[in-house]
Amino acid sequence: MTADLGYTRRKWVIIPLHVNGKGIYNIDFKMPANVVCCDGMLLSVVQQVANNDFNRMGELSMEFNSRKVHPVHMILDYLANSVAPKKEPLSLEEPLQKCSHIGGFYRDYSDKTYTLKIYLACRAKKEIPC
Amino acid sequence: MAKNKFQLIKFTVPQAGAVVNINANSDRLYKNITGLFASLPEEKAFEGSTLQLFVNDQEVFPEGYELKMITCGQQTSPNERYYAIEEEAGGSTIRGRFTDGGQVTYPYTGTLYLKLEEKISQ
């Protein structure tokens, strides 16, 4: 599948997940209409306590294009809430359909309270309404 | 004369949770902004701090974009520290909104570094 890219520029789409203890948190996010491709993904944790008793933080599963493709299913090791070496996005190169949904889930293993931010490095055309 | 330049944009954060507007113009003697780097006086100040940024009203970072994503520690070599962007310089409008999220000593001053390239010959 190839996307009609035309003139595009970088657009970051942020999906915040507020985690409050163990459990499954559903992801259902409508992508902006002008986004044509997801080049990559970065993850970040906000307001997490120190890692003192766990290594595995959770499990992330994401489906693109209204659940037609399933490019991400991964176990998250502990992510330090600090300045890290320079971060490069995990490459995805997934063309996106107009106004598609991103679905999936995050399962927390740590039983802590924090916000997991999923940064999608996308390419977007000029603003187009859905 | 150097072909590139590092332009500094400083902003002062007066208190915890403050929202600081950033308004500046890029150097009109350079064509392109090719890199961006953020610096705060304490590493803890990055925790939860966000930056929404526009260049010439084009969104570079959306609301909620954490500042720690465009910085890195001493372990990264200086020429690799800049977050790569491709934006127009030449006096372009830099508009930002910094939201403090840390618990540090106030007030403090943060700095945004713009890497400018392609000097316009006069």
Oligomer: heterodimer
Whole-angstrom Rg of chain B: 14 Å
Task: Report the order of strands and helices of chain A.
Answer: EEEEEEEE
**Cα separation of the termini of chain A:** 21 Å
DSSP strand count of chain A: 8
**Fraction of residues in H or I helices of chain A:** under 10%
Outline the biggest β-sheet of chain A: 4 strands, antiparallel
Given helix and strand content, the structural type of chain B is mainly beta
Strands side by side in the biggest sheet of chain B: 1-8-3-6
Greatest chain-chain contact: A-B, 20 and 24 residues
User: What structural class should be given to the helix and strand makeup of chain A?
Assistant: mainly beta
Shape of chain A: globular
Total helical elements of chain B? 0
Q: Quick recap of the structure?
A:
Chain A is mainly beta. Helices cover 0% and strands 58% of the residues of chain A. Chain B is globular.
Describe, in plain words, how this protein is organized in 3D.
The complex is a heterodimer of chains A (130) and B (122). Chain A is mainly β. Chain A has strands at 9-20, 23-30, 35-46, 56-64, 69-77, 90-95, 101-108, 113-124. A four-stranded antiparallel beta sheet of chain A has the order 1-8-3-6, with no helix packed on it. In chain A, strands 2-7-4-5 form a four-stranded antiparallel beta sheet, with no helix packed on it. In chain A, strand 4 and strand 5 (69-77) form a beta hairpin. The radius of gyration of chain A is 15 Å and the shape is globular. In chain B, the strands form two sheets. Chain B has a four-stranded antiparallel beta sheet with strand order 1-8-3-6, with no helix packed on it. The mean pLDDT of chain B is 91. The A-B interface holds A 9-14, 16, 42, 44, 46-47, 81-87, 117, 119 and B 43, 46-48, 58-62, 64-66, 68-69, 71-73, 75-76, 80-81, 85-86, 101.
